[in-house]
Amino acid sequence: MAGVKNYRYSKPSRFSGGTFDDSNPTVANVQKAFSQIAENGRDMAAGDGEEIRGRRYTAHIFNSLGFDNHFQGMCRLCNHDYLVVSGGDPHEPMSHLFVIKMNSGNENGRWRSGNGENTAEEDKIVATIPVDREKWHAGGMSVLGDIVAVPVYSAKPKYRIFGGKVPINSKVVFYNFAKPEAPEKFPFELDLPGKKAYAVALTNLPDGPFLLGVWCSNDPQITNRDDSRRMDLYISKDTNFENGFADERISWFREDIVSNDGQDNEFHDYQNINFVRQADGKLFLIGMHNTGNFAPTFSKKDTAGLFEVELPEIDDMLSNSAGAEITVTKVNRKEFQRNGRQFNMDAAAGVYVAPTGQLILYSAFHWLRKRMISFSEFASKVDSETDDRSGLVAAEMEEINQ
Fold it and tell me: Is the CATH code 2.40.50 the one for domain 22-401?
């Protein structure tokens, strides 16, 4: 079944002020929560809502087998029963955000939707946001309260055999999703010329400013490293998010990774990265990917890595001081059981922290199946011993942890 003739774009308005949430809940014990995340996810799906054009975002032969036209990132909005999924369509060309309303779920905890065979009709895409025509590839997103950060870059589509080179340039754009079906675009962007930005992670630091991590490569300024894959960190200009980020950066290269006993020293080509803040102020990062080189055609293991991130003083980061070193330590790794083509962590994935402190991962498959976006939910337990914020009685706690 083919989709509608054209995308039904909902162009976001420019942010004009107003209130928005700029923080996420913390997790009482991140390492414990990560270790308790279920390896078998709950299968879910949402209809395309007649928002996606023709056979786009499918692996159909008339869509060049889906090369470059697939879902790229996924995030669940805080305090809302909405998901945002990013994607790239080189045929338009256009980078996209698809807003999904999960009417059958609840706003804060785990969702209970079915898979593509018995999905509730009200779970569907309700808005399609055009992001950028030149930079048509949207990558792994990050959500902080109502703020969604989206990396986009320009590239030559794999299916296009002829034609000259396309200069690689990236930027990060920011949206206010306080009203999920009518988001606003913040009036600033972070331009990243000459870089390929795959994914971003966003958080706020305990003493006020915001921290943006950009997982990227292809920087022509980097000439003295065997591997230019790295995470560039940017600090906001002040504690008001509306004022954007300073141009100065400090870089962490993946060859500098440290690992705890029993852990490998790999920082993979993660398709999605997300910061998670612990209640005591410690900062962690979760990255997700599939170990196959040509996923989903030749997929291997869907994995998530957990890293503790130690930062230098903010003044040293802003001045790019020679002594400003970032330490990233791998502390755990998990593998997940995949149910056919329900999800793939080389496609869309993201991290959500519920108001109860519950840690939940989401991952979707690359393409539509029967006009459905298939995805899975992997949740940790709510730990009543270390986190009493939920205020749930024992019976309610047991229901959430099922």
Answer: no
